Amino acid sequence: MATKKATKKATKKAAAKGTKKATKKVAKKATKKAGSKRKPNAAFMKPLTPSSALAEVIGSSPLPRTQVVKKLWAYIKKNGLQDTKNRRNINADAKLKAVFGKGTVSMFEMTKLVSKHLR
Protein backbone atom coordinates (compact mmCIF):
# COMPACT_ATOMS: atom_id res chain seq x y z
CA MET A 1 0.00 0.00 0.00
CA ALA A 2 2.76 2.41 0.85
CA THR A 3 4.29 1.92 -2.57
CA LYS A 4 1.04 2.78 -4.36
CA LYS A 5 0.80 6.10 -2.51
CA ALA A 6 4.41 6.88 -3.31
CA THR A 7 3.91 6.19 -7.01
CA LYS A 8 0.75 8.33 -7.11
CA LYS A 9 2.62 11.23 -5.50
CA ALA A 10 5.53 10.78 -7.91
CA THR A 11 3.23 10.82 -10.95
CA LYS A 12 1.40 13.90 -9.65
CA LYS A 13 4.72 15.72 -9.14
CA ALA A 14 5.95 14.75 -12.61
CA ALA A 15 2.70 15.94 -14.18
CA ALA A 16 2.87 19.23 -12.28
CA LYS A 17 6.48 19.79 -13.37
CA GLY A 18 5.59 19.14 -16.99
CA THR A 19 2.76 21.68 -16.96
CA LYS A 20 4.92 24.29 -15.25
CA LYS A 21 7.59 23.95 -17.94
CA ALA A 22 4.99 24.09 -20.69
CA THR A 23 3.34 27.21 -19.27
CA LYS A 24 6.74 28.91 -18.86
CA LYS A 25 7.60 28.18 -22.51
CA VAL A 26 4.25 29.48 -23.74
CA ALA A 27 4.54 32.64 -21.63
CA LYS A 28 8.09 33.22 -22.85
CA LYS A 29 7.04 32.89 -26.51
CA ALA A 30 4.09 35.22 -26.01
CA THR A 31 6.24 37.96 -24.51
CA LYS A 32 8.84 37.52 -27.24
CA LYS A 33 6.24 37.97 -30.00
CA ALA A 34 4.46 40.87 -28.33
CA GLY A 35 7.62 42.73 -27.36
CA SER A 36 9.50 42.58 -30.66
CA LYS A 37 8.17 44.96 -33.31
CA ARG A 38 9.73 44.93 -36.75
CA LYS A 39 12.06 47.86 -37.22
CA PRO A 40 12.49 49.38 -40.69
CA ASN A 41 15.92 48.96 -42.24
CA ALA A 42 17.82 52.26 -42.09
CA ALA A 43 19.23 51.75 -45.60
CA PHE A 44 15.74 51.73 -47.11
CA MET A 45 14.59 54.76 -45.14
CA LYS A 46 17.55 57.02 -45.99
CA PRO A 47 16.41 59.84 -48.33
CA LEU A 48 18.22 59.69 -51.68
CA THR A 49 18.37 62.35 -54.39
CA PRO A 50 17.09 61.21 -57.81
CA SER A 51 18.95 61.94 -61.06
CA SER A 52 17.51 64.48 -63.50
CA ALA A 53 15.96 61.72 -65.66
CA LEU A 54 14.26 60.11 -62.67
CA ALA A 55 13.26 63.51 -61.25
CA GLU A 56 11.04 64.09 -64.31
CA VAL A 57 8.96 61.10 -63.26
CA ILE A 58 8.88 61.27 -59.44
CA GLY A 59 10.00 64.80 -58.56
CA SER A 60 13.33 66.23 -57.49
CA SER A 61 12.99 66.09 -53.68
CA PRO A 62 15.06 63.46 -51.81
CA LEU A 63 12.99 60.34 -51.03
CA PRO A 64 13.61 56.92 -49.44
CA ARG A 65 13.86 53.96 -51.85
CA THR A 66 10.47 52.68 -50.77
CA GLN A 67 8.76 55.94 -51.72
CA VAL A 68 10.64 56.10 -55.04
CA VAL A 69 9.28 52.68 -56.03
CA LYS A 70 5.82 53.64 -54.79
CA LYS A 71 5.80 56.82 -56.92
CA LEU A 72 7.10 54.92 -59.94
CA TRP A 73 4.24 52.43 -59.67
CA ALA A 74 1.75 55.27 -59.34
CA TYR A 75 3.16 56.81 -62.55
CA ILE A 76 3.07 53.43 -64.35
CA LYS A 77 -0.54 52.75 -63.36
CA LYS A 78 -1.67 56.32 -64.08
CA ASN A 79 -0.27 56.17 -67.63
CA GLY A 80 -1.26 52.52 -68.28
CA LEU A 81 2.30 51.37 -68.93
CA GLN A 82 1.94 47.87 -67.49
CA ASP A 83 1.89 45.21 -70.25
CA THR A 84 -1.62 43.79 -70.78
CA LYS A 85 -0.55 40.21 -71.57
CA ASN A 86 2.35 39.84 -69.12
CA ARG A 87 1.57 42.09 -66.13
CA ARG A 88 5.12 41.70 -64.81
CA ASN A 89 6.49 43.77 -67.67
CA ILE A 90 6.46 47.55 -67.96
CA ASN A 91 6.37 49.26 -71.35
CA ALA A 92 8.41 52.43 -70.93
CA ASP A 93 7.28 55.76 -72.35
CA ALA A 94 9.76 58.52 -73.29
CA LYS A 95 10.40 59.59 -69.67
CA LEU A 96 10.88 56.05 -68.38
CA LYS A 97 13.05 55.06 -71.34
CA ALA A 98 15.57 57.66 -70.16
CA VAL A 99 15.59 55.97 -66.74
CA PHE A 100 15.51 52.30 -67.83
CA GLY A 101 17.55 52.57 -71.01
CA LYS A 102 15.24 50.20 -72.91
CA GLY A 103 11.61 49.86 -73.97
CA THR A 104 10.39 46.91 -71.87
CA VAL A 105 11.50 46.06 -68.35
CA SER A 106 10.31 43.44 -65.85
CA MET A 107 9.13 44.70 -62.47
CA PHE A 108 12.01 42.90 -60.76
CA GLU A 109 14.58 44.49 -63.04
CA MET A 110 13.00 47.92 -62.55
CA THR A 111 14.32 48.44 -59.01
CA LYS A 112 17.82 47.46 -60.10
CA LEU A 113 17.77 50.00 -62.94
CA VAL A 114 16.27 52.74 -60.77
CA SER A 115 18.93 52.31 -58.06
CA LYS A 116 21.52 53.60 -60.55
CA HIS A 117 19.64 56.92 -60.64
CA LEU A 118 19.65 57.45 -56.86
CA ARG A 119 22.47 59.06 -54.87
Q: Note the quaternary state here.
A: single chain
SSE arrangement, N to C: HHHHEHEH
CATH architecture field of the largest domain? Orthogonal Bundle
Write the CATH homologous superfamily of the largest domain: SWIB/MDM2 domain
How far the N terminus sits from the C terminus, by CA atoms, comes to 84 Å
Strands of the widest sheet, in order across it, are 1-2
Instruction: Count every beta strand, where a strand is a DSSP E run of 2 or more residues.
Output: 2
Structural Rg? 29 Å
Estimated structural class: mainly alpha
Major beta-sheet overview: 2 strands, antiparallel
Tally of individual helices: 6
Mean pLDDT: 84
Unreliable sequence segments: none
Percent of residues in helices: 55-70%
How many structural units, i.e. domains? 2
Shape: elongated
Strand composition percent: 5-15%
CATH class of the largest domain: Mainly Alpha
Which fold name corresponds to the CATH topology of the largest domain? MDM2
Structure description:
There is one protein chain. The protein has 119 residues and is mainly alpha-helical. The protein has helices at 2-35, 42-45, 52-58, 65-78, 94-100, 107-115, and strands at 89-91, 104-106. It has two domains: 1-35; 42-115, Orthogonal Bundle (MDM2), CATH 1.10.245. It is 63% helix and 5% strand. The longest helix has 34 residues, at 2-35. It is elongated and about 95 Å long. The chain starts with a helix and ends with a helix.
